[in-house]
Design a protein that fits this description.
This protein has about 300 residues and is an alpha+beta fold. It contains twelve helices and nine strands.
Length: about 300
Amino acid sequence: MGIMALDELRDLLHRHARPDLATPIEDVLIFRAEQPQPPTPTTYGKVLAVVAQGTKRFALGEKVYEYREGQYLIASVDLPVTAHFARASAELPGLGVGLTLHPAAVAEVLLQAAPGELPEHGEGVPPGLAVSTASPELLDAVIRLLRLLDRPRDITVLAPLIKREILWRLITGDQGAIVRQFGLPDSSLSHIARAIQWIRDHYTQPFRVEDVAKVASMSVSTFHRNFQAVTAMSPIQFQKRIRLQQARLQLAAAPADIAAVSRRVGYESPSQFSREYRRQFGMSPSQDATRLPAGAAR
């Protein structure tokens, strides 16, 4: 079934891909790339992403991940990554589908599972990102969800049912520990997710790690260890990555206003901003600003 399933998945994605990525099914996006893309800073939110064709590569902190046709990515918290389709052409475009995951929906499925049906919890907090090979059952459910695009009348009734099936396949699959913790409001992963959101909301402000550890309801040492496990970065490195991503978006809109952008994202020293920007993106803010497309802020 594997080759035939991937062929059908590719066909569905080919036919229904749109420039804005959206589909008539809520929380479902289709990705298409007709040429290798430069590594682009972006945010992986809470999502399941399946590649049907091509190779997607992304970096989180110092870790580099790769997933290709028949594989899927799970992201359980909002993480700043650098991602791109490394292999894609007009003849063989990169194709993928993304499904936004909601903790409340995961929790609902968990509550419906009978005792003993769920695997045991692993030790410690799982990483925020993981890649696995999709099982035939998961691929089948994703394909049936996308088939609804050919039968729009069925979407309202059937899409929620198939999404629940997809969640169950994830919960009981290779990366089930991530998805299960994602749906439990008192899990270590959920506590770290609160801290991540706090840093994202206050990225322009200096903070003490002790204060963010309190947001996560953890001791400083436990918080440091768990934050690193989830994000592959320290809290300060994470904030720096958010600042630089925001700066790049703002430079796309105002390329001549480098000093003001530096201040707005929280840098007191323009030279430090330029140094860290170059280290992150491979060129100075002024060089990058001249080549950023006006629509990059999207």
